[in-house]
Amino acid sequence: MTTPVRHPYLDHPGPIAFAHRGGAADGLENTVAQFRRAVEAGYRYIETDVHTTADGQLVAFHDATLDRLTDGAGRIADLPWKDVRHARVAGSEPVPLFEELLEEFPEVRWNVDMKAEPTLHPLLDLIARTGSWDRVCVGSFSEARVARAQLLAGPRLATSYGTRGVLALRLRSWGVPAAPRRSAVAAQVPESQSGVPVVDHRFIRTAHARGLQVHVWTVNEPQRMHRLLDLGVDGIMTDHIDTLRKVLEDRGTWV
């Protein structure tokens, strides 16, 4: 059973299935082609990442550089959009602007990881300009960065915890006095970190008592998916979108 919804972004019956980078297992992560495949498979929640180019364009891309994933090279932050737009993921697919994704997939809700500080203001400006407050949840490993986003945008912006917020919630679940930020609507966490379990009954119970959903990343094996769903998590992020869909179908919770 999911925890009560605190923000329209989370208004979804049953556990939320997130396509991590659109379904990174297919090798075309964070591309329009891969996002389209996820949507055609029935996904309505997609996780992505954003960086800003040297001239302030907000692109959906995980790495700080183009080198690993594309036929281009260089730090995105040092390159103008006119150069980044010519890079091809896996030699075939262009790097998209995040604004393009909002337009191309109007029914999708986006979970957006702000990879660097310069993404904060362009992302909030884009969400405001397009009226996408109910379609975007903003996260970051930096709790300070996501807290600043929340402070600037107020309760209309859905946010998850950064690393420090997750740690505070984990400590609280162990009975250690800690005060995680109350403005978040979700704790988005790995199943474990450095060999230490993060997601267990105590963590989920503590999160739910604070009105938070728990979304776990990045889970690709069906047995792990079943175990986490049995624990009561509210969402799973996966690279293997067909696997997660089948697990939820088998449980009667695919929507």
From TrEMBL:
GP-PDE domain: residues covered: 15-248
InterPro entries, sorted: GP_PDE_dom (IPR030395), PLC-like_Pdiesterase_TIM-brl (IPR017946)
GO molecular function: phosphoric diester hydrolase activity
Entry coiled-coil feature ranges: none
Gene3D superfamilies, sorted: Phosphatidylinositol (PI) phosphodiesterase (3.20.20.190)
Pfam family for this entry, one: GDPD
GO biological process: lipid metabolic process
Protein name (record): Glycerophosphodiester phosphodiesterase
Tree of life domain: Bacteria
